[in-house]
Amino acid sequence: MNGTTRTREAVRQDPRVVVVTGAGTGIGQETAWAFAAQGPEVRVVAVGRRAEPLAETASRAPGRIVPLAVDITAPDGPEAIVRETLERFGRLDVLVNNAGIAPPGPLGNYTAEGVGALLATNLTAPVLLGQAALAALTESRGVIVNVSTAVGQRGWPTNSVYAAGKAAIDTITRSWAVELAPRGIRVVAVAPGAIETPIADHAGLGPERRAAVRRWQVERTPLGRLGEPAEVAWAVVQLTSPQASFVTGVVLPVDGGAVVG
């Protein structure tokens, strides 16, 4: 029985299926592990560009986490992710739009190519992936979780385009929550603050610059420390649980109080 011929009743008996983008490291990896830890009633499709870190993610829960190396910014990337998920599992219940890049840049240093690449990953890809998953999520009455940033609710000097893209994700979350409610789809977001992830390494910052950024972040976090990826993953999982079935349109800060401090 394939995904196109299953009845709605048969599909409901299958494991809950979660797609997590950017699942090779950091928040995405911890989110994949947190869903898989719920047991055999959950399957996770861990999406990312690089096969090696995805294999590491999948090794934590063989059989429950399936790695899928796809570039979400490729023209056929979003459709490929949904197609592969449905071909393997026949359904899609939760989409976690986590993948993101944060190359620093003061206004005077931006280029059209750099701005385009940043927004392609952080804004355009989540929109097109949500669109590609729409029919499947309608079928399952599923959940979309967008990973934003607490900085999007304030300002980030020398990283304005990143902050602006994430602020747009907040608006998209609220808008989709209203738009998709008649389909039974909930849409929520988590807004991490300063989290101990490799994103600064990927941004090309040197050791001294990374340390300076971390000090700046900790100084502006009332709890006085960096967060852990697992703490953000916990929030993602909780927002997708059946107990959260009346929660939609919320952007939940996971930031040690940075937004209100």
Strand order within the widest sheet? 3-2-1-4-5-6-7
Low-confidence spans: 1-12
What is the end-to-end distance? Answer: 54 Å
Task: Quote the beta fraction.
Answer: 5-15%
- Category by helix and strand content: alpha/beta
Compute the number of helices: 10
The largest sheet, given as strand count, sense and whether it forms a barrel, is: 7 strands, parallel
Got a strand count?
Answer: 7
Instruction: Let me know the average pLDDT.
Output: 90
Helix content range: 40-55%
Order of helices and strands: HEHEHEHEHHEHEHHHE
* Overall geometric form: globular
Rounded Rg: 18 Å
Give an overview in words:
The chain has 261 residues and is an alpha/beta fold. 44% of the residues lie in helices and 15% in strands. The protein contains 10 helices and 7 strands. The protein has helices at residues 8-12, 26-36, 51-59, 77-89, 112-132, 134-140, 160-180, 199-202, 207-219, 229-239; strands at residues 16-21, 42-48, 65-69, 94-97, 143-147, 186-192, 251-254. The chain has a 7-stranded parallel sheet, sandwiched between helices. Helix 7 (160-180) links the parallel strand 5 (143-147) and strand 6 (186-192). Helix 2 packs across helix 10 and helix 5 (112-132) runs parallel beside helix 7 (160-180). It is globular and about 50 Å long. It starts with 7 loop residues before the first helix and ends in a 7-residue tail after the last strand. Mean pLDDT is 90; it is low at 1-12.
